[in-house]
Write a structure and sequence with these properties.
single chain; 85 residues; 3-stranded antiparallel beta sheet; 2 helices
């Protein structure tokens, strides 16, 4: 599949994506970054990237650390239960 020179690269992609989004009432943040799937990206606590032709989706490092911190906090703040007699 060929690519047109005017739409190649992240800058050329943004214009049609913004037009498509605007038609649906979606306004992406100015800090929105377009990256190639081979480089990977974080989305909703998961990291997605393409590796050797296969799509890999796994929890992001920050997502795992955040989850572990919440578990630690819960354990420390929860009073210990007495075993039933």
């Amino acid at each position: 599949m060929g690519h047109r020179a005017a739409t190649s690269g992240p800058i050329g992609v943004l214009k049609p994506v913004r037009k498509w989004d605007a038609g649906r009432g979606v306004n992406p943040s100015p800090s929105t970054v377009v990256s190639h799937v081979d480089a990977g990206f974080d989305f909703l606590g998961a990291t997605a990237r393409k590796y050797r032709g296969k799509m890999l989706i796994k929890p992001s490092k920050n997502g795992v650390l955040s989850f572990l911190e919440s578990v630690r906090k819960f354990i420390k703040e929860t009073p210990r239960l007495q075993p039933p007699l």
